[in-house]
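Subject: Re: docking follow-up (nicotinamide-adenine-dinucleotide)

Dear J.,

Thanks for your patience while I sorted out the input files. As discussed at Tuesday's group meeting, I've set up the holo structure prediction with nicotinamide-adenine-dinucleotide included as the bound ligand rather than trying to dock it afterwards. The sequence and the ligand SMILES I used are pasted below, so you can double-check that they match what you have on your end before we go further.
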Amino acid sequence: MSGNGRIALVTGASRGIGRAIALGLAARGFDLALNDIEAQGAALKETADEARAMGRRVEELYADVSDKAQVQAMVADAVARLGTVHAVVNNAGILRASDVEHCPEDYWDSVMDVNAKGTFLVIQALLPVMKAQGYGRICNISSIGGKHGAPEQAHYSASKAAVMGFTRVLAQEVGPLGITANCICPGIILTDMGRVNLDDPAISNAWKAKTAMARIGAPEDVAGPVAFFCSDDSAFVTGQTLNVDGGIVLS
Ligand SMILES: NC(=O)c1ccc[n+]([C@@H]2O[C@H](COP(=O)([O-])OP(=O)(O)OC[C@H]3O[C@@H](n4cnc5c(N)ncnc54)[C@H](O)[C@@H]3O)[C@@H](O)[C@H]2O)c1
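The structure tokens for the complex came back this morning:
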């Protein structure tokens, strides 16, 4: 499986799963447009430099994915600097835990804005580019939380279920244009966000016990399946959702 010099845009690429996806794509021969918010500038530069050290062309692009004007400018910038975008990974996401009864309205709004609307805005900005070249690979990062979920994550679960529904219909709209759209649902992955579930050893051990592979996931575990959806190996796969969770849902 190889990127063959194709260009991929990865959002939220400074750390965690996004960083591992960026480096996984670089190792497979993709050039990269790497996005994050400006506050993550130093970390994004580190990811970008690691990918450059693999011989790839890499551009850093700052934008809040929930802001339409910033997203439009980011996509225009990516195309201006790299020539085009062939594949996109909508990875940027946030989690703000609260039970439903006490959930502040701004938790609901911000989580939906980044996770669901951000995915929509990036795709909307990119579709003219992909349509013009008759080619595109879209990989949206949802979550097993969007299928099952856990207490204090109802709004997060809703945002990730939205990403799956959006992707299924998007796949039908863009299929005739040579564009595929699929989702990845990571399980419990050790990142800054994942620590919410993992800091307490009792919770961490309970997740391991529920997982067929009997371990917590690493960000790198997600990169290969994402690269598959970004490559031509998945040319006739679209509208699908793949769990990358070590078998949690089998328990
Ligand atoms: N860690 C897990 O267990 C897990 C499980 C399932 C799904 N996910 C999903 O995987 C993705 C990555 O999660 P992670 O665990 O690496 O989280 P993380 O918090 O470590 O990284 C998220 C990245 O997104 C960036 N980001 C946040 N808001 C942004 C915005 N408005 N615009 C641009 N960038 C923004 C952050 O700066 C950060 O670099 C998220 O969509 C998350 O919901 C994570």
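A couple of observations from a first look. The beta strands are 7-10, 31-36, 58-62, 87-90, 136-141, 179-186, 241-244. The two ends are 31 Å apart (CA to CA).

Let me know if you'd like me to rerun anything.

Best regards,
T.
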